Amino acid sequence: MSTAILTGQPVPGSPLEGDLRSLGFDVRTARDAADAETLVRTVPADQRVAVVDTRFVGHVHALRLGLTDPRFAAAAVPGAVTVKPEARGALTGALRTAVGAGGAGAVTVAPDTVPDRLAETLEAADVDVYRPELGTLVAAVPADPEARNTARQAVAAVDDEAVRLRSAVKARDGFFTTYCISPYSRYLARWCARRGLTPNQVTTASLLVALIAAGCAATGTRGGFVAAGLLLLFSFVLDCTDGQLARYSLQYSTLGAWLDATFDRAKEYAYYAGLALGAARGGDDVWALALGAMILQTCRHVVDFSFNEANHDATANTSPTAALSDKLDSRGWTVWARRMIVLPIGERWALIAVLTALTTPRVTFVVLLIGCGLAACYTTAGRVLRSLTRKARRTDRAATALADLADTGPFAGALATLRGIPGLAPALALAGGAAVVATSALTSFGSPWPVIAAAGYVITSGLAVARPLKGALDWLVPPFLRAAEYGTVLVLAAKADVNGALPAAFGLVAAVAYHHYDTVYRIRGVVAPPRWLVRVIGGHEGRTFAVTVAAALLTNTDFTVALTALAVAVALVVLAESIRFWVTAHNRGAPAVHDEGEPA
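and the corresponding structure tokens:
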């Protein structure tokens, strides 16, 4: 329960108290700021507190946006201010200032607009006060009956439920999602909200539907493929619905953002596995293509994550390429063309669903690899040009984030204490990674040469991260390292040429990729994974070296067993630690987050 304290003289006929109760507030009334300070002290320390002017006139959704969003410690709209428990001390101090309004240090506002005075005092005390964009919504404190009547007419002229539904849709999304899913999924989100369903429940339902779709694909029958395609699309509808439900009802949470992001990857990659199993039932082995698709998609995401983290808070962050991009975004058709060409999740899943229903798993994977490959070239080339033409100065925070994304283990970590070579971090990562993958591909299975190449990879990886990753192209280091590790596993499993090797490799890469995705979401939400976790699972270079040693010393069949054992071990460790961390962070009240960035 939250508490709202009304200040000022009651206004006959005002629906304000009922509106606040509908938003979950226990409503109390204070005569003035001094009385409000006394009432605040009686509210339990773990509750949200809002102070609202009794003369407030506005839409219920304006109050909802200003007073119930869990992402912000303090927020305000005209005539109302709220704080979460962590900002209660600042509110108490602001109330003391408000009591002495007109004296030293007081904020010079009309003496009876207590909430607005409190919001300005909080900001003066360096408290970040979130002020939501209301658009056509009304939130006002009329000073006289005529102004009050005008405000009421403005409220009646705008349907706040329609505004609420429109704002539930992500502001920036892909063409397929915007025009083929969101026009009706927003109503499904409202249906869920009215029945008390939470975004996490819808996210879980989306995962279950996708897993059933993967099971249908695994049957290897045409009917199973058609059902799989339809279910995959329905899973995507639910995937859009959970985010829209979160925005519609302002049910944001750190745990929810993590579930949404990780389940998206689990759904897509489980579906790849289902297609590969279905193809195997028909006598076609496409596990290498399935693993290649997962590696390509994961590396694309790492490019996105690394570039964004490197430039998150960079200063002087402009370039001619970025200016051209902004200019193209001002033309309607180019916006949609550029969003579609990168194959975001909506277009990608629609493509997979249609190809699954109409063609074969092999055709599906080949087209997917070509499409994602072209998209990767387009986005990466653009980001390289931006990085080379901008004069950005990257911060220590960006360098730390890139170091965390590098996932350096104990072996390369020991070498990272050496003096690195300025400006050569991406070249070192690329050269070492390319060498180990190429050597594994060009030598016979069981050869010692991949082990030697992996030892060189340990050295180049250590040198690549020896200096803070602040160079123009240093954001390429994590994706180069991901491609090297995953590519080595793929090549050696394919060279083993024995049943079960590629599925085992698929499981290993999936477990490691989960760890890398989890690292991204921890960096965004709370804090990077602990160093002990990275050491226990070997780091990227330790796992790469271990796989090459296993390929050199073991028979084909034993190598498959080793890959399976390594996959299970990594999965158990990272899943256990990840679940423990996110559940604990949620229970401790970690800041709620919601990702409105690029479509995945």
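(Above: one complete record from the training split.) The chain has 25 helices and seven strands.
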